[in-house]
Structure to design on (217 residues):
């Protein structure tokens, strides 16, 4: 490995730990221009985000640290994924995930952290964003062949939307094919059980462990 390649990869790692969005995007672009394997470049960032996620889980780092690292990674990932597709390469996946914040709710921080850590762990994640209704989730599950649905709801007034989606999954006979994880500040384990979800965890690192467990990984 030549020095320029080492520098680019180190900068991708540095950008993640220093929460530097500009450096992340710049380094990702440089890696593509240099001809570095985009899977290798992505692995550098996912390893870094896993370290940060583990430190967050043990209380060594705080929420702003995980949010900052997530933002940096999200600045680079689209650039690297575009190159992966251009090369016809394929990253081994632990499962196909559809994630989003439910209808009527526009909060995204928690959902974004879970999406980032799931991606870092090796899941193929489609982040639908916020304010997603049951029809939107069902459409995405069918479109991407998802086997795990992750829904977030921060407010008590929007938790009921998670119940609606679970009911719609059963109506569409997808309940046996897709595992459902729910989370968010207003969600509890008891609520998750009541609506028929397959799992709940209050933390982003915990959600990754739960996703692996649900899919037998």
């Amino acid at each position: 490995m030549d020095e320029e390649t080492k520098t680019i990869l180190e900068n991708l790692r540095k950008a993640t730990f220093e929460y530097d969005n500009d450096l992340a995007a710049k380094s990702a672009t440089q890696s593509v221009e240099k001809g570095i394997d985009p899977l290798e470049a992505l692995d550098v960032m996912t390893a870094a985000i896993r370290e940060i996620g583990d430190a967050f889980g043990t209380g060594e780092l705080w929420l702003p640290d995980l949010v900052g690292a997530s933002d940096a990674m999200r600045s680079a990932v689209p650039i690297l994924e575009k190159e992966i597709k251009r090369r016809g390469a394929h990253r081994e996946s632990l499962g196909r995930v559809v994630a989003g914040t439910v209808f009527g709710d526009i909060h995204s921080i928690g959902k974004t952290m879970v999406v980032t850590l799931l991606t870092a762990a090796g899941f193929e994640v489609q982040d639908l964003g916020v304010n997603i209704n049951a029809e939107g989730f069902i459409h995405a599950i069918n479109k991407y062949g998802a086997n795990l649905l992750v829904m977030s709801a921060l407010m008590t007034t929007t938790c009921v939307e998670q119940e609606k989606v679970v009911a719609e999954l059963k109506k569409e006979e997808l309940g046996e094919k897709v595992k459902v994880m729910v989370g968010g500040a207003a969600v509890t384990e008891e609520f998750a059980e009541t609506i028929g979800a397959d799992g709940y965890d209050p933390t982003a690192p915990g959600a990754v462990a739960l996703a692996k467990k649900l899919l037998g990984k």
